[in-house]
Amino acid sequence: MILPDHLQLAFEDQVKQYTEEEKMPLLSKMELRAQDKGQQLGEVKMARKAALTVLQRRFGEIASTLAEDLNAIEDLALLEQLLQEAVAVESTRAFQRLLEQAVAPTEAENSG
Q: Which of the chain's ends, N or C, has fewer CB atoms near its CB within 10 Å?
């Protein structure tokens, strides 16, 4: 249904007044959840990138399999732990072992 302009403007004014009075959020709960999910994905992506950057700066070129394994991790807490390890580990091979040990319990939980 199309309202005449003056009624449409009056309706819009009433909706605006109502939302201000009720302090309705501008974003729905679904939009807020999507926003949170996007933020979490961004944090995961940045943690992966940070760990890879540290390893590359310390050891030069790293194996593509190591990068692929790291990029497969979705757990932010695990990625943050691996970033700490990347700063102190003695070699990329040692980091790969740590990575495999960290991922192994997760894979066992998912298959069981």
A: N
